[in-house]
Amino acid sequence: MTEYQAPRIQDNLYDAINGKWQQEAEIKPDRNSAGASTDLVLEIEKNLINDLKEALADVKDEPTDNFQKAALIFEKAKDFKRRDEEGIKPLLPRLEKLLAVKNLAELNDQIVDFALEGYSLPLEFGVMPDMDDATRHQVMFMSPGIILPDVTTYDDEEQSKPLLAVYQKMITELLSFTPLSTSQQEQFVKDTMAFDRLIVPFHLSNEEMAEIKNLDHPMPASELVLKVKELNLASILQTVFPVEPETVNVFDLNFVDNFSKVFNEETFSLWQHWAYVNELCAHSGILSQELRVIGSQYSMEISGQQELAPAERHAYNIANSVFDEPIGIHYGKKYFGPKAKADVTEMVKNLIRVYKKQIQSNSWLSESTKKMAVKKLDTMTIKMGYPDQAIPLYDLFTVKRSSSLCETLDDFSLISLKYSFARLDKPVDRTEWGMPAQMVNAQYDDSLNDITFPAAILQSPFYSVDASISANLGGAGATIGHEISHAFDNNGALFDELGNKKDWWQPEDYENFEKYTELMIKQFDGIPYAGGKINGKLVVSENIADNAGINAALQVLHESGDEDLAEFFKNYALSWRTKVRPELAKMLLSVDVHAPAELRTNIPVPNFPEWYEAFDVKPTDKMYRKPEDRLIIW
């Protein structure tokens, strides 16, 4: 390997800070990425695996403590001796129930059972906060998932053909473990692929789903019942929920308008065989090692991952997938210090205060819109570290040592579904967290107008009690500012201070905002990356938030009286240190609302005058942007 020659920082900030690491870093065979966030994840996993193993010493056959329940699931998941002995047997009752249904009429007679037991139906549904009244819940409906990462992938034969071939090979091998005859297995494969293609023309693209306004189609429940008359939706609405909803929300209107083309008496067997295959795919990772290996082929092809996670990490991932909140509370209490919580909470308050000042001095907003924006900031709730207690769901679930892993997780899914459906007639609980404490991430929730910073992300390089204020603002500060800014991105701007989808803008102000949004789209759109091009519309909400987050963090830094702009930008670049497998990088171009890390570093930074001051950036430097092309929205 030739010695890495770092570029000048004025020409490529990301590579100047991360390039040598990028060249030398190796992605572990059982991972699809490496970097700052991945390093934190590895450390967190190691600590929590040890904690779960320690907890097992005190675990009874039916523990009542939720962390001990998680530990028992962890133990079941790593018991491959039992899993291999059982093979596909734990799943057979679900598969047999599916095949026992002989026609559409029989399915509709049993539709409530199939809905409550989580089978793949031709119309998916769930309970979520009402977009138009965030104090209450609503039932939302959507089309089922599709095989390829995006509907646009089907049109790209060079990309779709090999992916579909891998998927077809995978399900063919999974079906060979079932009691089906060889000819039946072949038919199930054909029918699965055929039913998927029936869904695709009416399924939303990822670009469409990235805009919340495309997902809001409230209608009378009676109207939806008529639109999907082939399915006994009336029984679901009358029986599954504590009260029968009068209105519902439909995410993809085009799908329900064309529902009869997808699901009818003639396509019933296609649906049935597709649902059977979905059961196999969904459960393969919790059955035998052989089934786990086979069932991972497609996801590994997409991500480029070379090996499956070793047994202990696999077991941790399973326990964490169902008991993430109790595990997170354990993590927060044990590993998140009070000083870090106090420091970062103060940083959040400073960023919100600065954000208010920026809105009040904004040159293109009217006073009435400014007033509403400030009200939204004043109302915003901060969730820092970890929640005080887990939601009641986990107390409802009993983990029995005698049950198989598959039975245990299916039981949890059933209880979880019922718990979710039962929320319909209850007010939205604004104290609930959308992320567990051990997740290296952060979020803004439009419907709650709150920002969540799990304990896991409040570590180096994002934040350190020993780092300078410049470094911490370049890492955690920009991240916090980013999440605050989602309240005013192209999606968040549609919601008021209470989380209701409501027009609170003066028309001229919103027109100005849309013009700025278009300029942000243009800054990224079409940039070549990983054998494809950036879709500026897909990533615009995150890019607006990045831009505003940097600006807010810089303003707090100016007020600190101890600013080091160079250190700020260097740590900003360091926090984005990421290396992903080429296969994953290409796939993310069509599915991820976030731009690649390198571009999230190098594209927004030249918008700010502080960048030019920090490194004396000249017009001849590659990361120079003409003043008239610089963009600061908030």
Structural topology:
Blueprint: H1 13-24, E1 33-35, H2 36-55, H3 66-77, H4 80-86, H5 92-99, H6 104-109, H7 111-116, E2 124-129, E3 137-142, H8 157-175, H9 182-199, H10 206-209, E4 218-220, H11 221-227, H12 233-239, E5 247-250, H13 253-257, H14 259-262, H15 268-283, H16 289-295, H17 297-303, H18 311-322, H19 324-335, H20 338-360, H21 367-379, E6 381-385, H22 405-421, E7 443-445, E8 450-454, H23 469-485, H24 507-524, E9 528-529, E10 532-533, H25 540-560, H26 565-575, E11 578-580, H27 582-591, H28 597-602, H29 609-615
Parallel strand pairs: 3-5, 6-8
Antiparallel strand pairs: 1-11, 2-3, 4-5, 7-8, 9-10
Helix pairs in contact: 1-26, 3-18, 5-15, 8-9, 8-17, 9-15, 20-21, 20-23, 20-25, 23-25, 23-26
Description of the molecule:
The chain starts with 12 loop residues before the first helix and ends in a 19-residue tail after the last helix. The strands form 4 sheets. A 4-stranded mixed sheet has the order 2-3-5-4. Strands 6-8-7 form a 3-stranded mixed sheet, covered by helices on one side. Strands 1-11 form a two-stranded antiparallel ribbon. The model has no long low-confidence stretch (mean pLDDT 96). The longest helix has 23 residues, at 338-360. 52% of the residues lie in helices and 7% in strands. Helix 3 (66-77) crosses helix 18. It has 2 domains: 34-46 and 324-391 and 428-629, Collagenase (Catalytic Domain) (3-Layer(aba) Sandwich), CATH 3.40.390.10; 103-264, Orthogonal Bundle (Neutral endopeptidase, domain 2), CATH 1.10.1380. With 634 residues, the protein is an alpha+beta fold. InterPro entries: MetalloPept_cat_dom_sf, Peptidase_M13, Peptidase_M13_C, Peptidase_M13_dom_2, Peptidase_M13_N. This is Peptidase M13. Belongs to the peptidase M13 family. One of its GO terms (molecular function) is metal ion binding.
